[in-house]
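Course assignment 3, question 2. Fill in each field.
Student: A.L.
Task: Predict the tertiary structure for the chain below.
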Amino acid sequence: QREEARAAPGNGVSENTAPTAEVCSSFLTSSCCSSRECRSSSWSSVWASTELRVLSWSGSDVRSSKNDTNSTQSPSEVFWNVKVLGVVNSKGLHDPGPVRWPLALCLLAAWVVIFLCMLKGIRSSGKVVYVTATFPYFVLVVLIIRGATLEGSLNGVAFYLTPNWVHLANAQVWNDAASQIFYSLGIGVGGLLSMASYNKFDNNVIRDTLIITVGNCATSFFAGFAIFSILGHMAWRKGVPVGEVADTGPGLAFVAYPEALALLPGSVFWSILFFLMLFMMGVDTLFGNMEGICTAVLDEFPQLRSNLKHKTLFLALLCFSFYLMGLLLITDGGIYWFTLIDSFSTSFGLIIITLFMCIGISFFYGVNQFCQDIVDMICQCPPWCTKLLVYFKACWVVFTPFLLTFILTYIFIEMYRTSLRYGSYVFPTWGKALGVCMGAFCCLQILIWAIVAVSKESGTLKDRFKKSIRPLNSWRVNNLNAAAQDHPVEPERVEGPHTINLAEADFTAMNWEAISEA
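Answer field:
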């Protein structure tokens, strides 16, 4: 189905544009019913030669032209920026504007779901994870099968698998790689530690570590085929390279990929599956983060754990507090604040925290002591686990600190040489300074708790420091006592020479059972 966009007054197109341009409505309806074949370059020719005015849902006139912006905007981008974000109503970071109440209601519903799923602790969230963790795999398999049948999908896969070594010189690439692996694995945020605390004392942590890390990286690699196979089809339909339709950040999940799904037959079904998968992944991620906070607070205040009413009130206040904090991100200029927080406070701050954790375990607690603790906990440690600990030692002592320091230094060097952008908006200097303060504030807890630990000890400052970094073996004693309660220990037998005092009953004919009953 084709329709002609004619340059006439009042039809939303400037009179100075090209007189006639053919527009393929299959871009929006995902089907082309014309007897003639729909050319993939229709949209690109229209956007390159004409200046369009897109009327938003709120009635505001949003101008999308080659003269105003460096890149043309597709209908998906216009809907995302105008209807969803409302970013066109904000002048920048200094002008957040009002809260967008449709997004506020969606955010409230999401936090209500989180609250209900975590109400009974690990018993309820653990059961929900069976659904939220497995459903994305089902959707990925379905999307890969569907994408493999599309024309041009191989071009997208080739783009995905072909490395571009030039980008290794970009600090943002290293920053994004570190953030990706940190967030996908939950490193440095406490989620893994809190979840692992519910395991049995002799659980094989080395086996679980291999399963989690290999499964995580394999899932990320596997998901790339589902994304780029469909993006390759989108590029084929438009007649442009795959690199021009691929995007990063929220733009990939909410603009590029949904736009590609709109080209498929039954686009509504595929879109529902995709966004349901995103929701499941978001809920699953928050389970780990929230569990880390709740476990830490409940361990510090055990009375909250035993009192269901107080625990429910604490969880409700925690979820509501995070909801209020999130309102800034769903204002008209909220995407600018989201970009600022995502670029600074969750990048080098998390790397610094993880670096100090690695240094503390390796050089203060002692890497040999740490490995011996793992062997003692596993009890019947297989030989391959013991050999693998040698590799872990090398990583904890040499490779991981060196790599994190390299990435951190590279990020700091490039941080002031490149400007932070969202679209055509360039963040001001005070905005970048605020982002650095956010990241530094996350790292202040290291200094704060170090001061608290030193102040609790006695003696000179040097003695206090030595005592504060002294390893504690109380966890080992507590767990041994707990194991002894679960498995009663038999009375100790005396193997050496000893003295026995005989009673009068020993010289009589009465049997021992009668004496015992008496």
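Instructor remarks: The first strand starts at residue 2 and ends at 6. Residues 111 and 322 are 8 Å apart (CA to CA).
Grade: pending
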